[in-house]
Amino acid sequence: MSTPQLPAAASRGGASPAFHPSTSRPMSIKRKPNLSATIALLPTWFVALVVFIGTMAWSIRLSFTNSTLFPSSTYVGLAQYSKLFSSAKWLASLQNVLIFGVLYVAGCLLLGFLLAAALDRKIRFESAFRTIFLYPYAMSFVVTGLIWQWMLNPTLGIQASVRSLGWESFVLDWVVNRDMAIYALVLAGVWQGAGLVMVIALAGMRGIEGEQWKAARIDGIPVWRIYVSIILPQLGPALAAAGMLLAMGVIKTYDIVVAMTNGGPGNATEVPAKFIMDNLFGRQNLGLATAGATVLVLGVIIAVAPFRYIMHMREKAKGAA
């Protein structure tokens, strides 16, 4: 039985891939692990295992104890979780963070896409507008919260200014209105986060081939329809990544709430992170605080796992193709 001939490039000593003698397919070359790189990464692995995973496991353990001011070794089973979900304040915080998260992420994606589409038209002073729209994202949530807390303050902000001009019936008291306070947080959050989506979406738009625009203009398609039907589908991965970044920020929302409303009026803007911090430092209830933190960790995993699974399947499909 004759042995299959190797490609000409291989016979000349070229850098062509190795072929299996029976299948004539390129064989994967196994690379030996780089020992120096592995040693260099050991401190990083140590920090990841001890600082992150270790403290997380320790916090989960404390959530099954009756720890108060100091850690305790007395296990109480699921008593802290039962107490947690029987708390009206905790349930209100979950509802508030859900409302805030959905409106915040959706508002940032929508406004960011519209801003990117406007700048993509190559308007004058584009760099200046891009800097102005992105500037709020460079500020901390504390600064954002203080700015909007002052603007929406009925006695000092927009309402007082408009009434001083003669419009006495004008009302803009969202930060002290129980029904509107959560939407005041959404407004401030969208004002800050839309710039991030704008930059990501604009970068994606500038990467789209110009031939698509030429073909759409020849067909007489309106500009708005081009962005909705042609550009937007191609920005799916970029907008998904931006949405994931925003969603991760929603889980740990704390500083903007403290700066604007401090969780009030009542429990109208209470969020899980503030509930945890209040029980950890204010009420010295370590067991209940760690139970809430564990629920938040599970929430992050539930939010991130589907996205990571989809990305993994896409990469696997690309590799198979």
Describe the structure.
Residues 94-307 form the ABC transmembrane type-1 domain. InterPro entries: ABC_transporter_permease, MetI-like, MetI-like_sf. The chain crosses the membrane at residues 35-60, 97-119, 131-151, 180-205, 226-251, 286-307. Residues 7-18 have a biased composition (Low complexity). It comes from Rhizobium johnstonii (strain DSM 114642 / LMG 32736 / 3841) (Rhizobium leguminosarum bv. viciae). The protein has helices spanning 8-11, 35-62, 79-85, 88-119, 126-138, 141-151, 158-164, 181-206, 210-218, 223-234, 236-251, 255-260, 272-282, 286-320. With 321 residues, it is mostly helical. The chain has a domain at 87-280: MetI-like (MetI-like fold), CATH 1.10.3720. The radius of gyration is 27 Å and the shape is flat. The model is unreliable at 1-22 (pLDDT under 50).
